[in-house]
Fold this protein.
Amino acid sequence: MTTVETYATLDDAARAMGSDAAYLAGGTLLMRAVNEGNAPDRLVRLNNPNPKEFRSSGDKLILGAGLTMAGVLSLRELDFLHPVARVIGGPQIRNMATVVGNLFAEHPYGDFATALLALGAQVVPVGQGSPRPVEDIFRDRSRVGLISSVEFHRPRDPRAFGFLKVSRVKPKGVSVLSIAALLPREGGRIRGARIAFGAMGATPLRSAGAERALEGQSLDATSIDRAAAAAIEGLDPPTDQIASAWYRREVAGVHLKRLLTGMERI
């Protein structure tokens, strides 16, 4: 039988965590496991719903652990992420699903995590000092511990960030794949390209080939075609009930081209 333990602060909850426990925040996926009898022995939660604050410092944006998708949609400062949050389930899910929880959502979920990877986000562990790259979570989610917040820099040019979700059921179906792109430009040239794919591996992954094709280039038909041709480098698409690995490999470049072409025209 699963027991629920309630604590006053994140620090208290972090101290209570162990290999037999899971942290209960929005619970959009964890409660499914509870209902199916697959939950851990202990669920740890906060007395007050998770920290939902949003803060900014210059161009740095700080999202508290319990900020929900609906919360993201309510914030003008996060308008560039509204297209991402809007395709996370339906209204009920968006009211519960949290930004940090999405980092731990296993395939085929985790579209918001894909966007955070493209943005170069860092996570701030509870009681563990300095921020860590979000990639650290994806390497081994079981060893991360509790996260107090996620932080990243707002793109200076809103046209530098783009997102595309491909699903068979619009708008809230699970992803065949999702793509997030951060393409900062200096003097018309891309500097620091980051292209992230969701549902193209066990966790969100960056496309090394697409990034290399775009770096230092203008965003035009030629560079877009090269990025699309190199899109699957660094990716490891799965076969599941949504799509086969073969199909995902075939369409990844097609959808990347659509996303980048849309960003070029803005």
User: Anything to note?
Assistant: The chain has two domains: 1-43+51-104+120-154, 158-265. The radius of gyration is 18 Å.
